[in-house]
Amino acid sequence: MAESFNWNCPYCNHAATITSSNFSTFTNYFDDGNKDGSLAIWSSVTVCPNNECKEYAIKARLYKVKNVPSGRQFIGNSLITWQLKPQSKAKPFPSYIPKQILDDYQEACLINDLSPKASATLSRRALQGIIRHYWGIKKSRLQDAINELKGKVDQSTWEAIDAVRSIGNIGAHMEKDINLIIDVEPNEAELLIGLIEILLKDWYIAKHEREQHLKSIVAVATAKKPAKESKPADAP
Fold first, then answer.
1. Which pLDDT score is estimated for 113?
2. DSSP structural state of residue 70
3. What contacts 217, CB < 8 A, 6 or more positions away?
4. What confidence tier does 131 reach under pLDDT thresholds 50, 70, 90?
5. Percentage of residues of the chain with pLDDT beyond 70
6. What is each CA distance from 27 to 22, 61, 71, in whole angstroms?
7. How wide is the angle at C-alpha 163 spanned by C-alphas 157 and 166, nearest 5°?
8. Helix (H, G, I), strand (E, B), or coil: what is residue 146?
9. Each residue's pLDDT tens digit, 64-80
10. Global model pTM greater than 0.85
11. CB 74, CB 65: distance < 8 Å
């Protein structure tokens, strides 16, 4: 591999710079009279350099191939992409986030490539679950829940949520049952997944980390208080 690249481990979420020491690729060319002609399967293995993890991610892509003077060359974008290990692009999130929300998010990621419309359905359900649990907004329609959310969150976050509900069939069906299966484009389903990830990070994780930090400050102050009170009045 000629160049290094930045990478986040899908298992431990460790940010790392990947080099040839922990990244390898393989290409298998074939043409056995199949209907698409010359093809190639390109695969890669990335090993997490975090000593406490050392997990590995495997993905593969199928390409059409043409002969060129220098050898063989891939044609255009991949025909199929497989996420082999882990099986989805779901990011790891803490267990203090409600299980139902995490289950919907993880399944949405798992089937995003296979069925964007089913993925979008699960993401819509996760979005409503987040608004209901975190903000206590119990509206039965997602559209109404989002409307009530306005003014409770920062403007940029609400605008992002509002922007997602305005695109394509996602927006056309926000007012209907969140369990309704709708046709969406793959990039629309990915937008929904990205929104869920941002909300989980900015609301649940940020709140938890803030609470833990404040608790640590109180604990340190409490531990120092008896020692301070035991000192003589004229002590430095």
1. 82
2. T
3. none
4. very high
5. 87
6. 17, 10, 13
7. 145
8. helix
9. 999 899 889 999 988 98
10. no
11. yes
CA distance 49 to 7: 10
Beta-bridge mates of residue 80: 62
Best CA proximity match to 119, nearest among 177, 173, 190: 190
Q: Bin 111: left if φ > 0, else alpha if -120 < ψ < 50, else beta.
A: alpha
Q: Among residues 164, 126, 131, which one has the least CA distance to residue 145?
A: 131
Q: In whole angstroms, how far apart are CA 196 and each of 94, 179, 191, 201, 208? A: 14, 17, 9, 9, 17
Instruction: Give CA–CA dist 99/189, Å, rounded.
Output: 21
- Report the C-alpha gap between 89 and 95 in whole angstroms: 18
Residues facing residue 82 across a β-bridge: 60
Q: Which of 192, 12, 205 is nearest to 104 (CA)?
A: 192
The single residue listed with the structure tokens 């406490």 is: 52
Contacts of 159 (CB under 8 A, 6+ apart): none
